[in-house]
Design a protein that fits this description.
291 residues, mainly alpha, two-stranded antiparallel sheet, two-stranded antiparallel ribbon, 57% helix, 5% strand, elongated
Length: 291
Amino acid sequence: MKRTFQSTIYVIFVITTFIALSKAFMVYENPFSVYENPLVWLALIGFVLVIVLKEVVNVLAVNKARLLQNEKEGIVPEESDAWVKKLLSKWTRAKHIDQEEEIILDHNYDGIKELDNTLPPWWVYMFYATIVFAVVYLVRFHVLDGDSQIMEYENAVAQAKRDVSIYKATATDLITAENVTLLTAPTDLKRGKAVFNLNCASCHLADGGGSIGPNLTDKYWILGGGIKNVFNTVANGGRDGKGMIAWNKTLKAADMAKVSSYVLSLQGTIPATSKAPQGEIWEDSKKEKEE
């Protein structure tokens, strides 16, 4: 009766869970996407594990019952894993407990004796492999003057710098302080204003009048005016220890170009409160000379 009840509960669980998982998969647009519905996949994996464990328990129970029946009837089963034991014995060269008398050493201490087992072949082969590796390493790095780890690192860094230089020279959409241009399109300035309000207004105020940061509406600049200097300041930060943080790890280059252009669009506007001028006046002649 108990076994029938357990089987009934198990069948109901399997059918109910299968239907629930099927409906869950049908809800999603990409039902087999792990990223879209990870919880459903976890439930599916758990469902499969329950079924597998149930079958494993059944097999173990049947085998245990068979062993008890054979023991009761006096039947000695043949060892099905004899070849495994033979392989392990050959691979480890371990003596059977009945043969340990052959390898007991003469000396003993307080009744404790020691077995003179040979080293396992796998251990010996690994030891030989370390010797071969040491010889190759010695010849490669000490006789033939191969590159050390420091030299390999320096070569990798140099190659990476060359790759970056090639990329910068060939990339058409890469924006840097050297090639950035002033953007005047309304859509670009609108995006720049949004980036400014989200990241810059807390220090410069929404109208650019300045608070913790300097006033952005006058002609005074601490690190130079013009699109190139402003972009460089936004990307790499202000003065060490007391200036603005570098935004090149947070903002995309396109957004930095747009927010820099928006900052320059604030020139000449009248903020509600103006912070005292900081830095030097940026003249047009300086800008033209830089460009």
